[in-house]
Amino acid sequence: MKRVAVTGIGVVSPLGNNAADVLANACAGRSAIHRLEAPFAQRLAAPLVASAQFDGTEHFEPPRLRMLDRVSQFASFAARQALAGSHIDLTQADRRHIGVFLGTGMGGSQSSDEGYRSLYEDGCNRVKPFTVLMGMHNAPAAWIGIDHDLRGPNFTYSTACSSSAVAIGEASLRIAHGDLDLALAGGAEAPLAFGSLKAWEALHTLATIDAEDASASCKPFAQDRSGMVLGEGAAMIVLEAWERAVARGATILGEIAGYGFANDTGHITRPSIEGQAAAIEAALIAAAIDPSAIDAINAHGTGTQANDGVETGAIKAVFGPRAARIPISATKAMHGHLLGAAGALECVLSLLAMQRQVALPTMHLRLPDPECDLDYVPNRVRAGVAARTMISNSFAFGGANAVLVLRAAL
Amino acid sequence: MNTTIDRLRVLLVKDYKLDPATLLPDAPLEALGIDSLGVAELMFNIEDEFKVTIPGDPVALTTVGDVVGYIDDLVATQQAGAAEGDVAGLHTALGR
Fold first, then answer.
1. Can you tell me the ipTM of this complex?
2. Using an 8 Å Cβ cutoff, are A145 and A151 in contact?
3. Of A274, A188, A236, which is closest to residue A85 (Cα–Cα)?
4. Cα separation of B87 and B96, whole Å?
5. Which of A41, A182, A186, A196 is 20 to 30 A from A249, comparing alpha carbons?
6. CB pairs below 8 Å between A and B: how many?
7. Is A161 a catalytic residue?
8. Which residues of A, range 67-86, sit inside 8 Å of B by Cβ?
9. CA A268 to CA A265: how far, in whole Å?
10. Count of beta carbons in the 10 Å neighbourhood of residue A84
């Protein structure tokens, strides 16, 4: 098995559209969550979102842009950025051995939403000819392949909120096994259309608006947590075998050291300590490390009543008494829940935090919950945390629990 | 009154950001960046602009001039049909 190096990072997110901005804003504890300003906002119980400041017209030519749902715009831009950062010379690469592994929970839902609206609300008897191409889940990965002529496996994973953690994990296995020279892996999500927001609202998982500060509405692990806030964006990373990266003189940004997956079969939405703990344990086994090697944790930490208590229990189940001494960051309080892109964005944030030797803050944790009694790095970034190895948790509806073991570059 | 090619040019300049000077009758659509999918979308927009219904039958259009000819044929056929329909409707309304 080969070690898997991360040699490029690309990101579009509510916290910024490049790694430096995202890290700076996360360290500063800036929340990108805001009230939604849209004509339909008044029809939402709690019109809150975390949107990316991203204008596709600045990055794509009109004929291409017309075929790209917002989710594909995010993915293409993030992939472009990751490849540029890796300084790979694609002209010298065997493109049959370069793969794209992308996770998305809702695909091109804005295009589908628009198509339905024109049919059902406007009474049109036709939809735009590109509706299928823009709405299909594999469009973001397909466009990345087309953009860079990448002819290897081009796979889309849709396991709800763990989609991109799964995508990165599965890609890392291909690199570790020597099946591929290079992989672009990550996820993209653009769920801020009216139909999607209403569907999530109906599940009663979304946060209510904090009366004093709307940006503080998502409160992972706090007693007064009321739910999550939907966010949008993409994160893509370049993966390659460690020795290959070293040989070409690449800057190594970190390592995917393990990936574990455990399916939770008890309920379609209700998480379980057993399922989450099983995924963490599987990841540690894959990385061939003892739980004592984990220095910090990026929590799934959605801010829902159901997840945060169970996740605390799962961390305790795996790490025992030492759980209380591991810094745990829940960054969704700042960037919202990017659903299928969440695992990838949080993987990137974790790698950047280790590089900077900080533990990122879990914001808006003012009221501790007796059930959530671990060290969540509340409200302020913690400097001087020399974490060498982290896990990043991604747990999903459907029971798809995925965990990545991440190692700092040395 | 604008000719068909003038109106088509406006559409192509707006949606594809093309240089109007390149939109000559013999300009190949592929060379303008409009492939078969682009033609499908163009037909959608032509329906709106020219108030015609594109039939389901496939049709080979390779140049700007082909599209202009196709639009002119549709307009001639469908607006003539609509006019006949109007007359028939009027006759019905009058009880004839």
1. 0.74
2. yes
3. A236
4. 11
5. A186
6. 23
7. yes
8. 67
9. 8
10. 12
